[in-house]
Amino acid sequence: MFASPLQRSRQRHRQTLANTRQPAEDDQAFDDFRRLHRERLYRAVTSVTREPDTAVEAVDAAMTQAAESWAIVSNGTATAGWVYRTALRNARLRRTRLAGDGLPGDASHPDPVISDALAALPFRVRAVVVARFYLDWSPGEIATALRLPVRIVERRLNRALASFQRAVDEGR
């Protein structure tokens, strides 16, 4: 039977996983990673999406994807970035599918001025801001995680900070 390029790619991926998997060590390493990063990633994705249910599903799906591909994903230095990027993609796909359902937002910052300013930012800018200030990642780490040039990350941060400053000035 003829296999499409996507099917062949998936077959190669599964074969690579089968050849490189060391179950006991990988399972322990993934469990340690999950224990260390899941809550922070959940809070970050909740801050970006403002939808806790979406964030839980997106992070859990990203963690499942990471577990399935752990031998490959864990070889890089930006494993948390990969999971963050994957969770954001999952959340965005879910939001697209559920558009129009009127899901309530959940402001994750106690200051309503900051919360409203964060909510007013576009999704892609909010993802950079949350990674910088909630996950405490450097612009270089954000660029690696989101696969963006560092200059774009810095530009988005500068624009977001200017937007926050205007919101605080108007809120006084």
Biggest sheet overview = none
| Percent range of helical residues | over 70%
Strand content: under 5%
Number of strands: 0
What can be said about this structure in brief?
The chain has 172 residues and is mainly alpha-helical.
Question: Can you lay out the helices and strands and say which pair or pack?
Answer:
Elements: H1 5-20, H2 23-49, H3 52-68, H4 70-73, H5 79-97, H6 112-120, H7 123-133, H8 139-146, H9 150-171
What does this structure look like?
This protein is mostly helical and 172 residues long. The longest helix is centred in the N-terminal third of the chain and has 27 residues, at 23-49. It is 77% helix and 0% strand. Helix 2 (23-49) packs across helix 5, helix 5 packs across helix 8 and helix 6 (112-120) packs across helix 9. The chain is built from 9 helices and no strands. The protein is elongated, with a radius of gyration of 18 Å. The model is unreliable at 100-107 (pLDDT under 50). It starts with a helix and ends with a helix. The chain has 2 domains: 1-106, no CATH class; 109-172, Orthogonal Bundle (Arc Repressor Mutant, subunit A), CATH 1.10.10.
Relevant terms:
0% strand, 2 domains, Arc Repressor Mutant, subunit A, elongated, 172 residues, mainly alpha
